[in-house]
Amino acid sequence: VSNLFIVPAFIVICRQGLRFEAVTAVFTTLTSCMYHFLEPIGIPAFGMNAGKWHRLDNIGAITCFSNLFIYLADFGNDATEEWLKYAFLFTTIILQEKAPWNVTFTIVPVLSAMALPILRPLLARRWP
Predict the structure, then answer these.
(1) Of 28, 30, 29, 53, which is closest to residue 41 (Cα–Cα)?
(2) Residue 55's closest CA among 94, 84, 18, 16?
(3) pLDDT value of residue 24
(4) Global pTM?
(5) Rounded distance between C-alpha atoms, residue 64 and residue 39, angstroms
(6) Cα(47)–Cα(61) distance, rounded to whole angstroms?
């Protein structure tokens, strides 16, 4: 039920033309639903158990946070923002595949992304 709260945000994301963010939101919502549905019943879906769906949900959730902080950093350059989104996604996939239950591999990408809106104006010497 909590996944329904993404619907208003999804509408805003689509209206703003943020395609990568829209796809990430759909991915995260689907993987989260699958994880939360399959965990209590213990039946795999598409050959994946709840644990594998949980790993995908982690990747989606971390990527959503990364997208948010990249957006808040307001680089003013679509190419820079696009490269950062893919870099964070790539890094998140590698870290989650290495050790999905290692909290460090969740915190590091989120905190790194969180630093972007703080560091960007300091390094650029201008405020968004």
Answers:
(1) 53
(2) 94
(3) 96
(4) 0.90
(5) 22
(6) 22
